[in-house]
Amino acid sequence: MSQSFSAAPRIVVLFAKVGPALLSVGTLVLAWELYARISGISPTTLPAPSRVLAQAIQQRQALFDNTVPTISATLAGFACSLAVAFILSVLIDFFKPLRRALFPVFITSQTLPLVAIAPLVVLWFGFGLTPKIMLVALVTFFPMLVALVQGYESTDRDISALLSSMGASRMRIFVLARLPSSLPYFFAGLRISITYAVVGAIFAEYAGAAKGLGIYMLNAKNNFRPDLVLAAVLVSALLTLALFAATVLIQRAAMPWERLDAARKS
Amino acid sequence: MSRRLELRQVSKSIGDVDVLAGITVHAEPGEFVSILGPSGAGKSTIFRLLTGGLEGHDGGIDFDGRPLADARRPFAFMPQHDALMPWRTVIDNTALGLEVQGMSRKAARDKVAPLFGEFGLAGFEQKYPAQLSGGMRQRAALLRTVVQDRAMLLLDEPFGALDALTRTGMQRWLQTMWDRHRWTVLLITHDVREAVFLSDRIYVLSGRPARVLREVAISLPRPRKDLASPEASAIEADILDTLLDPQPAQRT
Questions:
Q1: How far is residue B225's CA from residue A252's CA, in Å, rounded to a whole number?
Q2: Most exposed: A53, A121, B107, B175, by fewest CB within 10 Å?
């Protein structure tokens, strides 16, 4: 059986994987294009996808200039969030009452409406990188913390018992067993959080920035250019997809055993 | 010569539950001893007391004639499931105990590598556990256990999760290995045939709270090839009677 699968040409296998997604996206875009053309709706209300694409190509320099700050804000904010989440997750793992003390605060932080918080953070910290980092961290920190703490908890009890029977210290058990056990959870959290991170950065820019996709969208909207708003949306979507793909590639490199495990369980 | 391990009237309660009620068990150096009992009887509790996973008990535990607390980690423990780390290669899994003892990863690998052939794992050093069969995983787990060079091996139902055919193969293989190395082994199992096939002596435990119902010496000649010999079958049937209907046995 498996031989006949691997005998299929790579292109066929690839199409079987991405074909359905291409088909559904293609159908949506086509329906949108047809509607925009046939209904005669004004392009200042709903531009056709072809027009959005044409404008995106024409404005590529401006779009690029505004994408770079968004990427910096996303990555800087996400890096800070990851560092803090990691440190706190380790503290919580070694000192469990900390979890009960801190989680209510963090859960509350997740209920804050970004619409209300973003302008305040900009008011307090100005138009620079700081408020963007803070907002990206706000939306990504808690999911990463929960993923890590849960990941440590997922450690096989037999492995912990084995290590302590060998005389391993608590620190040693953490490094040898709990940390590697958390990797699948960590990457699951990473995939979700990286998409939040882009949205968080754009929101922060929307609330006030010198440059960035968020402020570009706001200006385009104020100039009655929905085609340029959508062009910026297209760029942010591609950016998110690229970051998502990057996390998948990093996971594959960091966890070479994972696909073997998955194959064994299926 | 003093006994390698001796438990005298060991009792243990966990919370309100009496798990062990006065267990007296011993093992001589180079002896293969099994503790046989129904599931949930508290067999694993004995191992947790020995490895320090549980603390506090009544009664005495001596190792080589001195209190166990004075001995420095004399046991190498093999848990019920293989507990191989999926993120470590097979060689790094088997070297784990040596690394925890403070050996460098390189030195630990050098020490386990020559044993891969004997354990039927040659060529699988750089594979991950997910790429091994159930029997190979258990052999890797046993290699990880014996390479620690401890005075005594504690095996907790090592073949419980294997299919019947693989289990029989592993039991034969373990007997061959034990014949060659003469480790002191304490085996926990609920498989009567496995205990009879492998052991010099068997302690038959009751259900919870666990007491020793019987001590059975197995004098069948080694190497034991025929699991279904009349002598082995008679011992097996006798022990099964004790386990399944403990009342008459208690009167004797």
A1: 47
A2: B107
